[in-house]
Structures are given as structure tokens and as C-alpha cells.
Fold these 2 entries.
Entry 1:
Amino acid sequence: MNTLFRSTTVLDAPQLISFFAHSFSVTPQAEFLRPDLLHWKLWTKREDYSEPRSYVFERGGEILAHAGIWPMTVMTDSGELRGCHLFDWASDARVLGAGVALLKHISEMFDFVFAIGGSEMTQRIIPSIGFKKIGEAWCAARPLRAVRQMLSHQRMNWKIPARLVRNAVWSVVPPNPLAKGWFVEEVPEKVGLDWQFSHAAVYPFYPLRPASFFRYLRCCPTAEVRPFEMKSHQRILGYLVLSVLHHQARVAGVWFKEEPSPQNLHLAYDLAQQAAEGIRAAFEIVASGSTKFSEQAAVSAGLRICKYTPVYMLSRRSDVFSVPLEFQLADTDAVFMSDGTASYWT
């Protein structure tokens, strides 16, 4: 019987939930299988990307492999690159090679496919099918409300007093001179976003994100997505977006109206912390990036590195591997998904 490669529709939801539950060894009630979340991430209309975002291999009506697409466009010195991050990538263990074959089909639709981390099995497999390690993504965090963080997330044992003192100290960061005269102002939902960014021909290269992308993010059923304007009385530096989930304020990303210089990035991470401190439900702030350029800015702004994760890329174009790309949380499903980490400082 022939194998069929096709995009999915909302009619596939029940079968996909069953397939995912079996593939990932979870119950159909797992958070990432919520029907409203599944509908939003796979089938809700996106103004910035009109093509399908979910594909399967099937045989005789039975799903053999699935992959969801988180698309992006990057404007570089050599032109426009179309890329994507895959999520909900799974295959039937009884059908060898189905997941790899699906990935290869999808990779032909883009200039590059990238992956950050993944399970131990995924990290063993992807180098053998053409993915190259291009660097490491950093993740940094800072406690915001140490006591509430402890009561909500901490593992209760004899180390709690020491952790509480440590987190309380880390939660108090002296005002940074770079942030003087600058403030954040939340963009109300009823106000249309009209964001224009100039990230072409600068180091590093950021995926371009039009206003419609943020309208889509705001409809996420599991995370509270809050966009802010970074400004002084003289000028607007750009925008930052926080995604609030499980008492974490995740810096979905920062975008600038001018060059993302080290000083501007440092200032942006200062202002992200200022915005997060104003959200009572946020006990911790988390940020991520994929270059030393952004890592140094985050550390200088008072965030503490808590882990590094390998970044892999698959591309038929050799020139793509030399392009310095800055991937933020908004460029993967980490902006709205829970990996089971309630707090980085437990």
C-alpha cells in the first residue's frame, strides 16, 4: 500500500491526539494535546504564513509520522531565506524511517530547517540525516519573587533555606545606568500593532516578524502574550514581547527599530525585567538566544545563564551555515509550550 504525504486539517485532530499520546507516552489529556492549543498551533489562520503548518505520512488512513511547522523569514546580505523549526515531530516506532522521510520532504520546502536541543534520541538521530551543529543556544533566568517562587515551585527539602536566600539575593538587581530615562509601555490589545523593523545587513540576523505574527501569538490559549514598547521621552527603541506561562515571564523576543547593538540589547534585557516585575503572576523571568552577542548582553543586564543547548541546522545551501542567526523563544514552540521545568532556580 502506498504511503501518502499530505497536510492535515482540523478533521484529523482526534487521530492526531491519539497518535501523539502513543508516540510520546503520555495521556490524551496532556497539556500540549489540549484541543484548543492543537487547533491554534496547527490550523488557526496566520496572516504572515498562508501555507499549511502540519504534515503527515499516512498509509491506509493510518498516521505514520507527523511534523508541525513554525515558519520564519530571514533577510540577509545575500537575500531572503525561508526557514522553519519543527515541533510535534513524531513517528510510529513500528515503521522505521517514517519520521526521517517526512522531515526530508519538509526540508525541500525551505532554505533551512533548524532544531534546538530535543530528546537524547533526537540529538543522536539528526546528525546522521544531515543536520550540522552550528552553535549553542543559551538560556538565562532570574528570580523575581523568591518567596512566591519557593511556595509554588521549589522542591521541599533541607536545601530550601539556602535556596531562598540565594534566590532572594538574585531577585534584587541594582538599577542599571543604561535603563535610566527609559521605560516600557504595554501595547493594549485594542490598539493595532504597526511594527517595522530594520534587521537586514546587521549582525546577527534576526527572523523578520510582522505585526500579524504578534496578533497570532496573542491568540495563544495557553500563554498570556504581552507586547511592550521600549521607549524614552525622545525615541522608541523597539519592542519586546513577554509570554507568561506557569509563573514564568518568558522573553519571547526583542526587536529594534535600529541596529541591535550590544548596548541596545543590554538595555532591552533591562527593560524586559522591568516589564516582568510589573506582572504579579510572574515569579521568574527567562530569556534565550543563540549567539554570544545576545548572551553577553543578557548577562550584563543581570540574567544568569542556566543552561546551553545545541543548535542544529539542515540545508541544501552551504552558504546558510555561515549566516549568524539569532533565534529567540518566539522562533520555536518554547514561547508557548511547557517542558516540565517549573523553575530554573529550584
Entry 2:
Amino acid sequence: MRTKIRFTLLLLSIFFTGIAQAQYEDYIGLWQTIDDKTNKPRSVVELSIENDKLVGKIVKLFQQAGEEADPICKECKDELLNVKVIGLQIIRDMSFKKGKWKSGEILDPDNGKFYDCKIWIEDGKLQVRGYIGFFFRTQQWIRMTNKEES
């Protein structure tokens, strides 16, 4: 009897781990951000899983005329001050709960501030919400394919 219970628990564990892993797969990869003011592509963020947490770093910038070619985070605090924006981890410590990534933070490199963050997929687009208390802003990020990358 104990063997059957253990085997059933093992199968359930494998099943739910597989579901969680499939949900994670929907999020990892390259996502293009869109500038709120110009509606043009702003950057590419690579999302990945580290220790069951969703993290994201900037891997490419779409620079406009007159912008620095390789900018640094001039407004960031502490150890992030003057760190290059390309390669900068802007999403950290996101936990997957009830179909969304929550309880993490997102950095706005333009002002150096961290905001609480929620991330979910809706209509094939990544919904990224940064907020402080009841005030929030949600951006839609677009998944990039290998063809778009080149």
C-alpha cells in the first residue's frame, strides 16, 4: 500500500513539475520592448529562469539618432551606478503564482528606480506591469523569433 501511495505521489509530482516547466517555457526567450512615447522598438530583453525565479536582462538597444551608442545607467543607485545598460538585469526575483509572475522587481534604467512587477501573457504578448501601490503602468512586449534577431 505504501509503495502505491509513493508511486502515485511521484507521478503527481512529475506531472505538476511538467506543467510548471511548460508554463515557464512560454516566458523564456527574447522579447522586444516598445517605447511608450514613440511607439518604436526600444530594446530586446532576454528572460530566463534562475533558481525557479524569472529574471531578465537587456541584450540589445535600438538607439535613436543622437543617443549614446553604449549607454550606462547614470541614474541607478549603488552597485548599478554607471553599469552598461546592455547586459543589465532589469527584472529580478519573479515567482510564478496562479498563472503570473509576481513578487519581483523591474528596473527602469532611464530613472534608476525599481518598481514592483507582475508579468503575464495575454493574446500572445507579454504584459509587464510596474507599480508602486495603486499606481501602475503596463507595457506589452513582443516575442522575437530567431529570424527577427538577425
